[in-house]
Amino acid sequence: xxxxxxxxxxxxxxxxxxxxxxxxxxxxxxxxxxxxxxxxxxxxxxxxxxxxxxxxxxxxxxxxxxxxxxxxxxxxxxxxxxxxxxxxxxxxxxxxxxxxxxxxxxxxxxxxxxxxxxxxxxxxxxxxxxxxxxxxxxxxxxxxxxxxxxxxxxxxxxxxxxxxxxxxxxxxxxxxxxxxxxxxxxxxxxxxxxxxxxxxxxxxxxxxxxxxxxxxxxxxxxxx
Length: 224
Description:
By secondary structure, the chain is an alpha+beta fold. The chain is 28% helix and 22% strand.
């Protein structure tokens, strides 16, 4: 199964290599690459592990990368590893790694950001931000609202969002006055909802019609 990409995403191979198989983790500074591999090999086949070191002293910065062979393995590692690792999907290699490391480390140290949704919200792609000096963390839930200027077909929309594992239901509604499309999507985990929003917000379906995907309050504590 391939996750549908927006036209700006490039080829699936590029996305798979750069965005879906490499994770970024916070580790004890005493860890070696062998230690890192040992901790994360239970989640899948590891292509390589690397530890980020100070260029001057050669000492570990307490950060590292783990590259898996499959996107599903990287997703499982993020979902199931101990939260102290603060695992997230790594930025593509063509982006500034030093800037990414600095932002990740700074955000990880912020005491007001807690809970399992934290790893995703360290990366801008997983939260809705305005291009302004003040950035506001978007509340996360397992439920999504999908809006379109064209009406939805239940079966087609279900098939689209069912590409992300954990879909529980897809409820399509239609406004008889505007003929626009509206649907409520719910997943079994917040992680699945976050990933679906990340991949499908702004996606053209059908071509030329962009979907708007936002989180809906699901009655649960978002920190869970």
